[in-house]
Amino acid sequence: MSNSIIQLDKSQCKACYSCVRACPVKAIHVRGNSVFPFIEERKCILCGTCIGTCAYGAITYYDSKKNVKQLLNSKEKVVAICAPSIAGEFDDVTDYRIFVKMIRMLGFSYVTKMAFGVDIIAKKYRKLTHDDFNGKYYITSCCPSIVNLVEKIYPELIGNLVPYISPAAASAIVAR
Predict the structure, then answer these.
(1) Residue among 113, 138, 114, 110 at smallest CA distance from 124
(2) pTM (2 decimals)?
(3) Nearest CA-CA partner of 24 in 51, 56, 50, 4
């Protein structure tokens, strides 16, 4: 397997082409005399539609667990930045302090929520869309697939992307 984010395992692929039909940006196609689909990374917006469409599990996303384990085993301090949705994964845990303890037990030095990154970026959005509003409408930059769609497929709209990093990136910068 490669280090590509979206990966196709030809040994699992049945060449049904459901991924080719499902790709919203036509980044998956059949090349030359191969029967297997090919994912064209320069066009792929990383939306994951192909993963959900593949009934054979031949398309997967890059698994970074090995990288995380290496970080946790290093001497570096490692921060876990948790999305608010983490509570939905553990509906039996009602006290956030238990989450922190569980994550710290894995080896993370610090545990924080992404919420403060959301607050930072929300203030900038408010200023841009209210205080500094000049009649221009913006496309949110919170979703990487939307940003990829604009940058790769509709580059004429790049000027309409909100000129700020995502809340996740803001959280990472502050945590660093």
Answers:
(1) 138
(2) 0.79
(3) 50
